[in-house]
Amino acid sequence: MKRIGVFPGSFDPFTKGHEDIVRRFLPLFDQIIIAIGVNSKKKYMYDTNSRIDHISSVFDGDERVRVEAYEGLTIDFCKKNEAGYLLRGLRNTTDFEFEKSIAHMNEVISDLNEAPIETLFLMTDKNLSAINSSIVREIKKNNGDISQFVTNEERLIINT
Ligand code: ADP
């Protein structure tokens, strides 16, 4: 049985904070799927395909990492991909409260489906805890340099 974990998020954009979480979870898994949640009603700064291309470039050559976009319930995406674990990062108490609710709700939903999915958390790296996708977007909108927060940022294409 392969150990498969799903790391879901908007990743608009995928930052060095996200990257660090994936790299630190990798020794525990055979495969990690970075799952870009797409909500058709939401406007993203970066195009979905560009986000897939960008994240793939960050893990270029590592066969253990797959990048995919999905719609609908994260739990359903996990089941479809035979993943038993949801992976998340924690930066602060706000993340904790929010993540706790989602993890508990997901546990209830996945129990109903007789396929319990565990959520695992890693604490943010102390040097990366301030990195936040929405602040990175603000910096970019104002023509600031985001290269210190995002690996290979030249691969990202802004939605027009
Ligand atoms: P969402 O829209 O689901 O919040 P994000 O793309 O903002 O998705 O984040 C996905 C996951 O990455 C979340 O678990 C979030 O807490 C975590 N994360 C975001 N930034 C960092 C960081 N700098 N360090 C550690 N984890 C982070």
Domains (count): 1
As a percent range, the share of helical residues equals: 25-40%
Report the structural category: alpha/beta
Overall geometry: globular
Beta-strand content: 15-25%
**Strand count, sense and closure of the main sheet?**
5 strands, parallel
pLDDT < 50 runs, ≥5 residues: none
E-strand count:
5
Order of helices and strands: EHEHEHEHEH
Question: How many whole angstroms does the radius of gyration measure?
Answer: 15 Å
CATH architecture descriptor name: 3-Layer(aba) Sandwich
Say what the CATH topology is: Rossmann fold
Output the number of helix runs: 5
* First-last Cα distance: 43 Å
The kinds of small molecule bound in this structure are: adenosine-5'-diphosphate
Widest β-sheet, arrangement of strands: 3-2-1-4-5
Task: Characterise this structure.
The structure is a single chain. The chain has 160 residues and is an alpha/beta fold. It has five helices and five strands, in the order βαβαβαβαβα. It has a single domain, classed as HUPs (Rossmann fold), CATH 3.40.50.620. Helix content is 36%, strand content 19%. A five-stranded parallel β-sheet has the order 3-2-1-4-5, sandwiched between helices. The chain is globular, with a radius of gyration of 15 Å. The termini are far apart. Adenosine-5'-diphosphate binds next to helix 1 and strand 4.
Outline of the structure:
This protein has helices at residues 16-25, 48-58, 74-80, 93-112, 133-141; strands at 4-9, 31-37, 65-70, 85-90, 118-123. The protein is α/β, with parallel strands linked by helices and 160 residues long.
